[in-house]
Amino acid sequence: MELVFEVLREAGVRLPRIIGPAVSIVGALVLGEAAIRAGLVSPAMVMVVALTAVASFATPAYSLGITARLLRFPLIILAASLGLFGVMVGLYLMYVKLTAQRSFGVPYLTPVAPVVIEGWKDSVIRAPLWMLNRRPSLVANRDNLLKQKPGNKPQPPDVNKRQQ
Fold this sequence. Notes:
Elements: H1 2-14, H2 20-37, H3 43-56, H4 62-82, H5 84-100, E1 102-103, E2 106-107, H6 159-163
Helix pairs in contact: 1-2, 4-5
């Protein structure tokens, strides 16, 4: 079902703009209904494929959507062959790969994978800008640890100056 949906998606992209989406939607409906009536797939499988298709349109970046589409097929194969254990093995292998990855010499999942609590103020929990005085320890050189001068906290306007 996933392969059929990917073929329909690619066909819809290559057709003219006016009829492309309509052909994709109608094709998915017709093929899904035919597959259920023929007994090839269950209605639950069609629902899962439809939900993953709709969720794939919610990705904010195109490259992230492509990555998710490519990783979906190995996970489906692992799930079909090993069940939930296979899905967990696949997710574990992705986690290992991401923790070993580096970008410009900095671990890819910093500050989460090598735990750097100081870095959580800018990624996991969004702190106010006036609290973010120091650069991340893995990026900054020893001469330039400060991002901004300490104490740049915004102050309320002075009421006495306004009245004058």
